[in-house]
Amino acid sequence: MADESLAGWMRALIAYVRSGEPDLTNRQMALLMLVYLTPGPHTVRGLAKVLGVSKPVVTRALNTLGALGYLRRERDQDDRRNVFVVRTTNGTDFLEGFKRNLRESDRVAAAHRPIIGQQPAFAHQR
Question: Crossing angle, helix 26-37 and helix 55-67, to 10 degrees?
Fold first, then answer.
């Protein structure tokens, strides 16, 4: 059910906010996940194309993610004109924490699934 998916996402985001981790924008989070979950090499141009935004938009997001240590720019050793966007240990740790939030949200949702014909435990009484 769509409401369950949204409720799970809400719980994961609340856990993320409570974690004290830096507050990333949707654009920054999408960029971070794109680099970590799709095969590289990743360039600013390629990332901008996939996200449907301009290169300066990606550059600004990369500046923030780089300052946090979640992504790093690295020169191509074969062609020094090219710059790749690469993963970091800090970025991996951050996303592992986010995955834990999602799993916990799924676990909580599963524990509160009603038996067929019953109202969910979190449903408002009228």
Answer: 80
Domain enclosing residue 31, as ranges? 2-111
3-state secondary structure of 35: helix
Q: Which helix (H) or strand (E) holds 72?
A: strand 71-75
Cα–Cα dist 22/15, whole Å: 13
- Asked if 94 and 21 count as a contact pair (C-beta separation under 8 A), the reply is yes
Per-residue pLDDT of the chain (126 residues; tens, 9 = 90+): 457 778 878 888 888 888 888 889 999 999 999 999 999 899 999 999 999 999 999 999 999 999 999 999 999 888 888 899 999 999 999 999 888 888 887 777 666 655 555 555 555 544
Write the CATH number for 56. 1.10.10.10
**Does some domain include residue 122?**
no
